[in-house]
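USER: Please consider what follows.
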Amino acid sequence: MVTIYDLKPKFQACLRPAAAWLAQAGVSANAVTVAALALSVAQGAWLALEPGAALPLLLLPVTLFVRMALNAVDGLMAKEHDMASPQGAVLNELSDVIADAALYLPFALISGVNAPLVVLVVVTGIVAEMTGALGPLIKAPRRYDGPFGKSDRALGFGLLAVLLGLGLEPGPWTNVYLGILLALSAYTVLNRARRIVAEAKP
């Protein structure tokens, strides 16, 4: 199933010079990962401290794009500049789910937004990422299948942030919107689990 993740090779190609420059400057891939996490936590704290405020909501898509770029850069540095390590692999998986929680849970604090639905979408997204990471445990590839992976969640919450930031009042439409995101997240869990089991080596 096509997802935004399928655009990753072209996105990485644009960022390859930046990854090479950082590697030559002595910056580690793990440092880039930590920078992406710190940026996400800071943006999430801003959203939580000013729930529903226009500026942090409208700047969220920018933060999400920068985070995505940093995630792509750290991957390039690890693979193409001999910086891959067990510590980096663990840090990468943990930082992704921590950043998602930090960035998206503050939506539950916005007046009129269904908080339990927000929490369910975030938790199901975390389960999807952990499901994808189970592959190597049973000798299968790490799975990034959609329809609602990390990049798709960024688009979904980024769009929601823009709509709310532009003054659209939360209401029944936000429940429907979040319900769709939840359904897509749940299907992603099932899709990744099915692919992992099918590709597992005896």
Q: What stands out?
A: The chain has a mean pLDDT of 94. Residues 44 and 103 are 4 Å apart (CA to CA). Helices lie at 8-24, 29-49, 54-80, 86-104, 115-133, 150-165, 172-199.
